[in-house]
From TrEMBL:
UniProt entry keywords in alphabetical sequence: Nucleotide-binding
Cited InterPro entries: P-loop_NTPase (IPR027417), Small_GTP-bd (IPR005225), Small_GTPase (IPR001806)
Full protein name: GTP-binding protein
PANTHER family, A to Z: PTHR47978
Molecular-function GO terms, alphabetical: GTP binding; GTPase activity
SMART domains: RAB (SM00175), RAN (SM00176), RAS (SM00173), RHO (SM00174)
Length: 396
């Protein structure tokens, strides 16, 4: 069955415009300005945009030549009615994003780079490729109460050991060419590609996995490593609940740079403590290996400076699949365990506060409080019992 790129482009562009209302059109064109694919929200002359693209291409080529990997280039300028953002997809094709004149290019750019990555995947798609076209809203601020209730329900489900449904967001970071995308593809599709192509900013994949009778939905955010994208990564880290940091066992510099990635992660998640796994990839290249297992363990010990931080170390091969599934299983276990601990502690403290409040109101001097107060706990979930231990010293 051949790949129907037109259908994929239509679905991708429609979803993209639904999420980002300030963008009026997206166009993919070649060096001569010939439109390959596009979608617009209202009456925009795509031919004019295409002509502008052909004019801007020489500038993009110059930017690309000066860029670290000579694969990307970007430019933007304003017209009377629109703001235009151009992203070089490769040496022959350009993505043009048309924004309304009040829109922020900086705000739109993280979305545009995700779109560019998806467009390249469609262009290079082969039969059997799994191209996921979801476009998330990076700035969606989940209601705190709703999030707490969702996590609480998940924790209660986990007590049953099976039948739960969980969705977690993981960011996957590390230097370029360490195999981040290959690890994700091995886990999601059980495939490996020998052709290297740097991720343009961000790629997002979703994958369902059975974990001890529970359904885990991984939202995998494969983040581009190029310095050019660093200013957008804080947006991509938003709401991350766990992280992989990947290095190449055959490249000492990628190992040493893990400390820089760790610092960036700490800065961007603003002090939140999330489970983390450091992955040494490419165990199949035995003769080229320059980082030992002991080196990896030592690094983890150096980074584990806080008692509540969970950092593990595992070595994998995206080529052979060695330990890849185990790495994703381990991160799910760490996240669920931490969530249970955090939620149980919070529920315990809330219950203690409530008990203290009740007892203060009903305190009777000289009377035995135990004979005056009956505590009944009604749970919406019949399988949950608040088996928390309270000492009398906690109750005033």
């Amino acid at each position: 069955m051949t790949v129907n790129r037109n259908i994929l482009f239509e679905e991708l562009f429609t979803k993209f415009l639904d999420v980002y209302q300030d963008i009026d059109a997206v166009i993919v064109s070649d060096q001569q300005g010939l439109i390959i694919a596009g979608h617009k929200r209202k009456d925009i002359d795509v031919e004019i945009v295409s002509v502008l693209t052909s004019i801007i291409n020489p500038i993009l080529e110059r930017i690309r030549d000066e860029f670290a990997f000579r694969e990307f280039g970007t430019a933007s300028f304003d017209t009377e009615f629109y703001r235009l953002l151009f992203i070089s997809l490769d040496e022959r094709r350009t993505l043009s994003v048309v924004l309304n004149h009040l829109a922020s290019v900086d705000k739109a750019s993280p979305y545009a780079y995700l779109l560019a990555e998806k467009v390249v995947q469609i262009i290079n798609a082969e039969e059997g490729d799994n191209i996921q076209l979801t476009i998330p809203n990076f700035e969606y601020d989940t209601d705190a109460a709703a999030t707490e209730e969702r996590v609480k329900n998940q924790i209660y489900q986990m007590r049953l050991d099976q039948g739960g449904l969980y969705r977690f967001k993981f960011v996957i970071i590390g230097d370029h060419e360490v195999g981040k995308t290959s690890l994700v593809r091995r886990f999601v599709e059980n495939r490996f590609s020998h052709d290297y192509r740097a991720t343009i900013g961000l790629n997002i994949l979703s994958h369902s996995y059975e974990f001890y009778g529970n359904s885990i939905i991984y939202s995998l955010w494969d983040v581009g490593a190029q310095k050019f994208f660093a200013r957008f990564r804080k947006t991509y880290y938003l709401g991350a609940q766990a992280a992989f940091m990947v290095f190449d066992l055959t490249n000492k510099q990628t190992f040493e740079n893990i400390k820089e990635w760790y610092k960036e992660l700490e800065d961007f998640i603003e002090g939140r403590e999330i489970p983390l796994i450091i992955i040494g990839n490419k165990t199949d290249l035995v003769d080229e290996r320059v980082v030992s297992y002991q080196d990896g363990v030592k690094l983890v010990n150096e980074l584990t400076t806080k008692p509540n931080i969970k950092i593990s170390y595992i070595e994998t091969s995206a080529l052979t699949g060695e330990n890849v599934e185990d790495a994703f299983t381990l991160i799910a276990y760490h996240y669920i365990s931490k969530s249970k601990e955090d939620e149980e502690e919070k529920v315990k403290m809330d219950l203690l506060d409530e008990l203290n409040s009740i007892l203060k109101e009903r305190k009777v001097i000289g009377e035995n409080l135990d004979s005056l107060l009956t505590l009944t706990i009604i749970s919406e979930n019949e399988f949950w019992s608040p088996g928390f231990k309270f000492s009398r010293k906690s109750i005033t």
